Structures are given as structure tokens and as C-alpha cells.
Amino acid sequence: MPDQATALPLDDKVLLDVKGVGRRFGGLVALANLDVAIRPGEALGLIGPNGAGKTTFFNIIAGAIPVSSGSIHLDGEQISGLSPDRIAGKGIARTFQNIRLFDEMSVLENVLIGRHRFFRASLFGLIFRTKKAHAEENLSKEVARQVLERVGLADKMAQPARSLSYGDQRRLEIARALALEPKLLLLDEPMAGMNPTEKADLSRLIVELNRSGMTILLIEHDMKAVMGISKRVIVLHHGEIIADGSPDAVRADRTVIDAYLGRRG
Amino acid sequence: MDILLQFFINALMLGAIYALAAVAYTLVYGILEMINFAFGELFMFGAFLVVSFMLPQVSLFGVMVPMPGLPFLLAAPLAIFIVAGMGYLIERCAYRPLRFAPRLAPLITAIAVSVALQNLAQSVWGAQELAYPSFFLLEAKPIQIGGAYISMVEIAVIVTAAVVMTALHFYVKKTRMGRAMRAAAQDVEAAALMGIPVNRVIAMAFIIGSGLAALAGIFYGAVYLFAHPHMGFMPGLKAMVAAVLGGIGNIRGAMLGGIVLGFAETFGAAYLPNGSAYRDAIAFGILILLLLFRPQGLLGTRLPNRLADRGAMAFKGSASAIDAGLARLSAFFAGRDLVRYASWGILAVVAVSVFFIFPSPYWARVFVFVLIYALLASGLNIVVGFAGLLDLGFVAFWAVGSYFTSILFVEVLAKGYGVDVSSVWWLFYVNLLLGGGLAALFGMMLGYPTLRLRGDYLAIMTLGFGEIIRLVATNWVDLTRGPMGIRGIPVPSLFGYKLGSPVQLYLLGLVLLALAVFLIALMVRSYLGRAWVAIREDEAAAEAMGINTARYKLYAYSAGGFFGGVTGVFFAHSQQYISPLSFTLFENILILMLIVLGGMGTLAGPIIGAAIWVVFLEVARDMPFIQQHPELRFMALGVLLVVLMIFRPQGLLGQKRQPLMMS
Ligand SMILES: Nc1ncnc2c1ncn2[C@@H]1O[C@H](COP(=O)(O)OP(=O)(O)OP(=O)(O)O)[C@@H](O)[C@H]1O
Ligand SMILES: [Mg+2]
């Protein structure tokens, strides 16, 4: 089990290398010169008060908004500057803080969209329904079914996404991202709005995914959940990293406590 | 020098009229981010009302009605007042219920309102021009400056426009309501949170905008001395272009845009080679260049469509009992292929049996038109219904297919080389593919510059393309025979056996339609169709899942274009005559409405919409009141669509979702 992520030597392979990344919105510095190295197999927690820049960081990694400065490499290959679809094609999948499903498509079809990068059939293949075209469609359907099984939505496959409950919609977003078979999974507050049982289920799922080797970057306000899932936690505040270490170390860190207290007090 | 001065004065006058109407578009867009296509029609109502009030009697619905014969200075404010009220009502009844609907809904509604108003005017005032009565501005002697003449009307237009604009400027700057308007234009939601009465602000924007449009129409009529149901169409589009040119949402920008457009058009028509023929194309050319290189406009800072994360056409259901029942019913049938095949089977049986019960060749011909519209609607449905891209230039593809085959057969083979066209009967079938392919290529080319644009901007850009193609077809006489059209296109034949009778054409068209639907189904039920629908539902999420949205939009344009082109070839050979009159924006809007009528994003919707409409068109022809006022049918369609958009956006038949997977 690669559950000793933080214990890996520092010169070990880096999956996602964020170097000096900054992002401004007009006068606002949303991210200031961030350096983060994510190692393969890690489950990294990203926390911070509201408006700290967490979602912006995701948007930057996924290419939804361009960096103002710095660079990002995935497996040694530069991805900053690429379009979101290219980045997804390289194996980074994300979920959205405010759920963004394809409402009118069925649950299964939503997940199949996550499989998009695996489709190769030409127009000819589609029109003549060649064996190859059928085979890849069936393979993807099979994978999609498995993924839905895994998040517990297998019995709702034919429903339109919009008809799902809130918690199910969050799970569907995760399923859609998983279907992409990502090297790196970005989860933006996946537990927001869930009840305790749902949260526990989802925590278990995330841990399982990580155990099976998937690298995960998790934004979550629920401290207990983050601490349970991640061996390493980064704290963002006003676009800067103010702490980076084990959950216990972060919890005891003075600047972190101040940041949160300052926010609330 | 004199002539230059004269042009200068004309340009300023025209620019002032455009500017007035452009401000109307920009006021509303600034707040709602919606293009109210109906301003062009309100412009026309302004002119009609003022003329009606000034005359001693007017024929309304064909009945002579005595009128007050008011002086212009009373008639004009009264007309403006009434049109402003119309604007208010339209906002209240048609647009407000859709304020939070998916972004295509208000756009389609605006187009439908526009169609309804135009046809209402035509029923009321008739299809002929209503001449402006003479009044003091027209009777006054023109003033001579240098060698140029400037009439009193022109002076009045320029001065009034300047005064109104200045007043508006201060209104927006200084009054409470004006400031609220600016706040709402910044951010409607934030404004609402801060206690600004957003509904009243929006109503006010519509009232002022409609009043300005009416004023512009009154002047336009006074300058050209007529009122006509279609008079608002071109100026309305151009004012919209002017608003975009200045930077949509920016009031001073709209003024500037109007003036710039007035000058570009006047001087372009005078000095560009063949400029006067392409006068109307100048505005659209500017529009396309602008959207390519500076979409935010001259003074604008805002990029098109902040609301892009709203889905294009999701039908978040109103949870009525009927809907719940229907949902349960469709859940029951969901996935039961049998039912689906059965309904297609029934449709096919109906289609074939119609052929046996044709009471006359006349009805067979009507049904050929059903097929042509069904084909066009099915093609456009790929772009609008599946990919969620509003395309108002689709008729261009139809035109490309039609002209391609007609020019090849008539101009090149028959006239150019003296070939006996019946010896190359097979070429028709080849041309179906070639014409489709050529149109698909056009689709790619026209689609490419629009990739960065969404929603409304996309609509007007494609509209610009469509108009340009039509203007080329009208004016490139050497190639297309211009407005006279091309005659003598051979009917389709098979091994020398002519398929010229209406019933034979119907059968041929039926085969084409079946093939088209089959092909579309194969495309849609695969990762291709899924990518289209994903783009329609949420473009950003689609991108995040690895879909190259630009590429799939181009695929949609070219697939749609292909079927448009194929239809064009069939159309040309079945009618044996084509002219630019077939390929108008109105036709495009009609096709769009048929899709909405039947159900967007479904396979059967466009066919059913086309069948209902074309048959209704014929049946209603014999109804007593409609016989005198055939336009009322189009008005009814416009009204019906507005109602549909509000209460039943999934279309008349409200089909189940289209499955998007291979079975
Ligand atoms: N597209 C944008 N344009 C302008 N400002 C933005 C944009 N996106 C984010 N911001 C600003 O950047 C800052 C960081 O926002 P971000 O959404 O990344 O915070 P967050 O840490 O995800 O907060 P939360 O916990 O509330 O989700 C905020 O001040 C936000 O207002
Ligand atoms: Mg966030």
C-alpha cells in the first residue's frame, strides 16, 4: 500500500509540479507565487478560509483560467497554457464546487462523457457501426457501469441527471470524473451539503480510491473528513500557502489557527 | 466637394436614426444580456401609428376607419407613448417569465415576438406601403449649405436625436432610476441584493428603449415617406449591429456605433465598387470583422455573455401535476425500444399512406414542402437542438446546395457546354452528396469565426453570414442570375424515367428524409451526439471532461450544413426554379420555430413541427377571416411559440429525452 506518502524521499517522482504559479483578478491577488509538488499516490488535502483561492487553484490546474505567472507540469510535461480539454486528455479530472452536470442527459450518459477521451471511432465507423465502434462504446459503457456501481448509483443509471438528489448529484460528478481514469483527481468540496452518513460513505470511497493508487487533491471544509483522508494537508490563505504538512502538524500550527480565527473573529 | 458634403449630411442623418434604435438594444442588453429582436418591429409600429394618427382615415383590417388627423407634433408623442406601452407589455408577458430560463429561451421568444408583431402589422395595415401625409417639416424648403441641400426633416432628425441622447445621458447619470439602471447593468443580482427594484428598472429600460425605437421609426418613415410592415427589419438589424459595434451595454457606444455605421454605409455605398448593390452587406461585413477582432466593440469593456454557464436549453421542469404524470409515464416507457420503434413505424406508415390518399396533385405538392421543411429542420436541429448553438444563417447552406446544382446543370452544362441534361440524370444523385459536402465545408468556414462566441452573439454573427450570402445571390448576377433566379432546372430522373409528378417527388423526398433521420440518429447515438448535448448543457463542464468544444461545434455546423445542402439540391430540382427570395432570414426563423414547435433536440420533433405547420398553413388558407389576412397564420405561430417557451419549452409533443448511446 502506498500509504506512506509523506515518508517518501523528496527526490522521488513528482506527478504534478506547480512552480511559482500566480493569478490576479484585476487588483486582487487570488494566488501568489505558489509552489506545490504532488507525488503519485498522494491524497493531498487543500483547506483554507472562504475566498482563500482554493477553487482558483483548481481552475488553474484544470486550465479553466490561465495562470498570470509560473508553470505547471504533469509527469514532467508542461500543461499550463493548454486548453481544459487537452489537460483533461492528459489525465486530470475534476469536480465542481457548484455541481455542473449535464442535466438533460441520463446518469449513464453523463458518466460516458467522462469517457470521451477514449473514443477513436471515425465518422465512417459511427455511421456504419463498425465492430470497432461498437466495441469501444460497449467497453466504455461497461466501465461507466462499474464506476456507477462503485459510487452507488447503479440503480439510477437511466434517470436524467437533474432528477437526482443533491447528494447523488455530487456522487455522479465524481463518477463522471472517475470514468476519465485520471492520474490526478481534483475534488472541490465533494461533501458540501451531504448528511453525516453520506459523508462517511464518500470518505470511505475516497480513501479506497487513493489506496488503489489514484492521486487525489481534495478541497474540503469539513476538517474531520480531510484529516481522515489525507496524510498531508496544505493550508491556503489569501492566495498563499501558510502551512504544509501532516494533519496534526497543521492543526497545531499557530498561523493556521490565526488565519481561521481571524476570519471568524 | 458639394457631393461630399451631401453624403456627410445623409450619413449623419442615417447614423442618428441608427443610434436612436441602437440605444434601445443596448439599454436592454446592458441589464438582461438579451437581444430584444422585437425593437425592429416596434420601430415599424412607430411609423405606422404616427401616419395613422395624421391621416383623416386609414384602412385597418381592410375596413376604412376614420382617424383624428392629428398634427405631427401631437401624433408623434402619442405614437411613442403607445409603442412604449407595447414594449412594457411584451417584457411583462413574454420575457419576464423567462428571466431565469436557459439562455436560448428568451432569444427564441424575442424572435417569435418579432414575427408575431410583423405579421400583426401586415394584417392591420396591409402589405402595401402607407404613404406619409405631408406635414410642415416636409413642406418647408430645404436649406442650402455650400452646394448641398439639407431638408428640414433631416435637420429635425439630427437635432432631435442629439437632444434625446443628451437627455438620456443625464437621465442615466443623474436620476435615481438612471443610477439604478446603471447598477443593474453592472450586476443584476448584486443590484437586487442592494434593494434596487430590478423589475421596475427592467420595465423602464424596455419602456425607454421602445420609445426610442418608435422615435427612430417615425423619423425613418418621414425621411423615406412611407410605412411598411417590413420596414423595421433591416434598420433593426443594423441598429443591433451598431450597438455591438459601439460595445453592447454601453450607451455612448451605441450612439457612436450608430453614427459610424451611418457613415460606413453611406460612403461605402457611394465609393466601394458595386457599393450600392451591397449597401446592406456593409453593416454585416463590419459586424463579422468586429466580432472576429474586437468582440467587445469600440467603447465596450465587456465580453459577450457572462452567463455562459447557464445551459443553452435545459428544461428545468415546472413541477405541475401534468408534468409529474408525464414523467411517470415516460419513466415507464424509458428504455423500452419497442415503443420507440413502434412510434417510428407509425410515422412511416402515416408518411406512406398519405401518398395513397392524396386527393389531388396539389396536396402532394404541399407534402413535398412538408418534406423539404422537415429536412431543413432536421439539419438545423443538429446545430440548435443538439449542440445548443442558435444559428440564424442556416438558410445559407440550403442556398449553397440549391445554387450549386442549378448553376452546374443550367448555366454550365446546358448553356455553357450545350449538354443534354437528361443524359446526365445521375448527376443529380451525385450532386446530393457534392452539394451537401460543399455546404458542410461552408459550415466549417462560417462556423470557425464564431467559435469564441456564445448565445446572442453567435446568433447575430450567423445572421450576418446568412444575409451576406443572400445578398451575394441577389447581386452577383453573372453567376446566379440575380433576383430573376435560375429557371429550367431539370426534374430528378432515374435511368431516363422522369420523377417529375408531385407524388413521385414526394416519394423521393420521403426516401431522402428517412435517410437523413437515420444518419442523424446514428451520429447522435454515439459519443459525437453526447459531446454535442454536453456542450449544449454545460460548455465549461464539457471542456473539463476532455471535449474539444470548438471542434465539436464545427462538426455540428458542418453536419447541419450537409443536410441543408442536400435539401437545397432536392429543392432546386423539385421546384425547377430557384431565386434568392427563398433563402431569407424569415425562412430561417420559420425553420427554427418549427423545431421548437415539435421539440428541440429530438429526432421526430422537426418532422412533426414541419408537418403540423405546412398542413396548417394550407388548411387555414380557406378559413374565412384568414383568407383575407393570410399573415395572421404567422402571427399565430409567433404567439404560440411565446406561449410554448413559457409553459412547455420542450415543444408541443414533449417527447422523452433523445437517447444518446448505441443500442
Ligand atoms: N473569475 C473570477 N474573477 C474575479 N475574481 C475571482 C474569480 N474567481 C475567483 N475570484 C476571487 O478570487 C478569490 C479566491 O476565490 P476562490 O473561489 O478561489 O476561493 P475559495 O478558496 O475556493 O473559497 P470557497 O471556500 O468560498 O470556495 C476570491 O476573492 C474570489 O472573489
Ligand atoms: Mg471554492
Largest sheet entry of chain B: 2 strands, antiparallel
What structural class do helix, strand and pairing data of chain B support?
A: mainly alpha
Number of strands of chain B: 10
CATH topology of the largest domain in chain A: the name is: Rossmann fold
* Spatial sequence of strands, sheet with the most strands of chain A: 6-7-8-3-9-10
Shape call of chain B: globular
CATH fold naming of the largest domain in chain B? ABC transporter involved in vitamin B12 uptake, BtuC
Number of domains of chain B: 2
As residue ranges, the low-confidence spans of chain B are 304-310, 313-320
Tell me the fraction of residues in β-strands of chain A, as a range: 15-25%
Can you tell me the CATH architecture of the largest domain in chain B? Orthogonal Bundle
What is the terminal separation of chain B in angstroms?
Answer: 73 Å
CATH homologous superfamily annotation of the largest domain in chain A:
P-loop containing nucleotide triphosphate hydrolases
Radius of gyration of chain A: 19 Å
Report the mean per-residue pLDDT of chain B as an integer.
84
Q: Can you tell me the CATH class of the largest domain in chain B?
A: Mainly Alpha
Please list the strands of the largest sheet of chain B in the order they lie side by side: 1-2
Domains of chain A, number: 2
Contiguous helical run count of chain B: 27
What share of the residues of chain A lie within helices? 25-40%
**Class by SSE composition of chain A:** alpha/beta
What does this structure look like?
- Chain A: It comes from Taklimakanibacter albus.
- Chain A: This is ABC transporter ATP-binding protein.
- Chain A: Keywords: ATP-binding, Nucleotide-binding.
- Chain B: This is ABC transporter permease.
- The complex is a heterodimer of chains A (265) and B (663).
- Chain A has helices at 54-62, 84-89, 107-114, 123-127, 131-151, 166-179, 196-211, 223-229, 247-252, 254-264; strands spanning 16-25, 28-38, 43-47, 69-74, 77-78, 92-94, 184-188, 215-219, 232-237, 240-245.
- With 265 residues, chain A is an alpha/beta fold.
- A 6-stranded mixed β-sheet of chain A has the order 6-7-8-3-9-10, sandwiched between helices. Chain A has a 4-stranded antiparallel β-sheet with strand order 2-1-4-5, with helices on one face.
- Chain B folds into 2 domains: 2-303, no CATH class; 332-637, ABC transporter involved in vitamin B12 uptake, BtuC.
- The interface between A and B is large, with 45 and 37 residues.
